[in-house]
Amino acid sequence: MNGVGSTEPYMSEVPASPAPYGMRVRLLALADDELVIGWRDSEWTGIAPVLEEDVAFSSIAQNEIGHARAVYELLADDADALAFDRPLEEYRCAPLVELRLLDWAHTIARRWLYEEADRIRIEALRRDADPAVAGLAAKIDREEAYHRMHAELWHERLREEPRFRDAVEELWPYALGVLPPAQRAALAERVGLAEVPAVERGGHTGELAELWEEMTSVRRSAPAGAQW
Amino acid sequence: MIWEVFRQERHGRPFEHAGSVVAPDADFAETWAREQYGRRGESAALWIVPRDAIRDVEDWADEFDLKYRRVDGYSIKARLKEARERRRLDGAVHE
Amino acid sequence: MAAVEVPQDEQAFLDYVQDGGQVEATDRIPDEYRAKLVKFIEMHANSELMGVLPEREWILRAPTLQRKLALTAKVQDEVGHAQLIYRVVEDLGKPREQCLADLVSGKSKFHNVFHYPTRSWGDVGVIAWLVDAAAIVSQKALLKCSYAPYARIMKKICWEESFHILHGRDVILAMVTGTPAQFELVQEALDRWWAPLMQFHGNPIRRDEDPMWRWRIKSQGNEEARQQFLEGYVPQIWELGLTVPDPKLRRRDDGVWEYTEPDWDELRSVVTGHGPMTDERLAFRSRFIEQERWVRDVVLAA
């Protein structure tokens, strides 16, 4: 198992799943998206605008990390190694989730857009021929139903609020980039916005580098394989 | 608005008052109460009620002796003892 | 059977609570009792909320997915506790916005331990294991609080805290059985946290001179709480091969723990807003309260 500081690409770490390469990339993208948005959402712990919401929001963040873990476990024996021990350029997350958005309008706009995009993605995975993938997608979907309720609740309340509308408009190109081109029209229709050029996956924002530094700082302080 | 939350720990058990959340409407109240009173699987069900909908009742008239309609109004030991004694004495005849 | 009548005369009220009597939010209570109650309960709520800040940083740095989930859940509980406790204060007549304003202005207080910095993952373990343990000792004594709404939420709080201590212990055990460097992280954190822990339960005023005891808001004196903490946790610390930075710490034959007198001046100074992290943390909290005020205005307007 590759440990800290390895320069080998992630594929060589993925022996467990017999799934074809294309599926592994899709799943890794899903897992990385969930890991990073979960990490971003957990930044709100203790500082959300309303205490009751703080508690609810934290559950969403935990669920996302849980989804990431479940998908990593499909792809590798050591989910933690896959989550934390890759070099930056091997993460497959979309720029949308990388953005540091420590204001509520942007955070909720992202939540709403991300859940809409994710719904389309998960729906496709639920129809996958591999029962392990389809089964996991179904479980994720059942939990995401509550996230969608929550996002819709906030969307309803804030839709007339200029801060929120501006944030949605700003993040829209990023949201499109969460999905492959073939699925973007569906997202545009759901959300009621015209399709625009997307901010594509493939590059990473400087914000991911900062996040990765902090996320892995404790883990890197001990030799690979140290128990925590 | 304040919403009172009643929770049922397991199906079949009574709903008990658990606490309250401050929320603008029933949907927010539900989302927030779900988390505050159910995220550890500690509740089988919740009832969420606006505080204003609850009528508080705390006083009863207690002027006269109402023991005739309560269990503590009855002490049957002495009479039961007497009845058993009587049967025991008569028993020589009936058995 | 007559409904319980809460006495209106202050002396009779005192006798009533000292006899184990409880009061509800709808009962009329003496002004002094109300004032002491609000101050005590508000400090508890503030502490839960401020306690989130030191731990929050480490959620972001958790070295495994499991630890990230567990620490997020633990801190979530603390925010939840703040919500439960502020609700009690609100029902006693003080609005939440006022409580938060008083917190960031320094007018109201929070417990000493949350004024100190965290420096490593070792702190995460020590806080979850020992700081939470010290808090639980106090919280168990509040289960019998004369103010029933507060006593009732303490039940939920104590139930949720039980996993915190296990989580803390698990984090510590992983490190003390890990590399020597990890063991050192724990020992170093313990060395820094010991003094605040010893101050946590407050200076040993005599029970009958403590208004919290007289009004039966607390059912335990400060020294009693500290002894309970030492009795429960020093043996656990020692059995892991960790040392406590107090050469005088020992258990007498009669079961009483002896220790170096804590620095009560330090406690007073910290709790009145002069802790190493007080200003920074209050500023951080204030920043987000202000920044997101518009959300509360839009959302909480029913």
Please describe what this structure looks like.
- The complex is a heterotrimer of chains A (228), B (95) and C (302).
- Chain A is mainly α and 228 residues long.
- Chain A has one domain (17-193): Ferritin, core subunit, four-helix bundle (Ferritin, Up-down Bundle).
- Chain A has helices at 21-42, 51-75, 79-84, 95-98, 104-126, 131-158, 162-176, 184-191, 206-220.
- In chain A, helix 5 (104-126) runs antiparallel to helix 6 (131-158).
- Chain A starts with 20 loop residues before the first helix and ends in an 8-residue tail after the last helix.
- Chain B has helices at 26-38, 77-94; strands spanning 2-8, 15-22, 45-50.
- Chain B is elongated and about 75 Å long.
- Chain C is an all-alpha fold and 302 residues long.
- Chain C has a single domain (25-274), classed as Ferritin, CATH 1.20.1260.
Question: Strands, helices and their partners?
Answer:
The complex is a heterotrimer of chains A (about 230), B (about 100) and C (about 300).
Chain A: H1 21-42, H2 51-75, H3 79-84, H4 95-98, H5 104-126, H6 131-158, H7 162-176, H8 184-191, H9 206-220
Helix pairs in contact in A: 1-2, 2-6, 5-6, 5-7, 5-8
Chain B: E1 2-8, E2 15-22, H1 26-38, E3 45-50, H2 77-94
Antiparallel strand pairs in B: 1-2, 1-3
Chain C: H1 10-18, H2 31-61, H3 65-91, H4 96-105, H5 121-141, H6 148-176, H7 180-200, H8 211-214, H9 222-239, E1 250-251, E2 257-258, H10 264-274, H11 278-291, H12 293-299
Antiparallel strand pairs in C: 1-2
Helix pairs in contact in C: 2-3, 3-6, 4-11, 5-6, 5-7, 5-9
Task: Summarize this entry quickly.
The complex is a heterotrimer of chains A (228), B (95) and C (302). Chain A has 228 residues and is mostly helical.
Uncertain runs of chain C with pLDDT below 50, 5 residues or more?
Answer: none
- Count of the domains of chain C: 1
CATH superfamily of chain C: Ferritin, core subunit, four-helix bundle
Binned, the helix content of chain C reads 55-70%
> What is the strand content of chain C?
under 5%
CATH architecture name of chain A: Up-down Bundle
The ordered H/E elements of chain C are HHHHHHHHHEEHHH
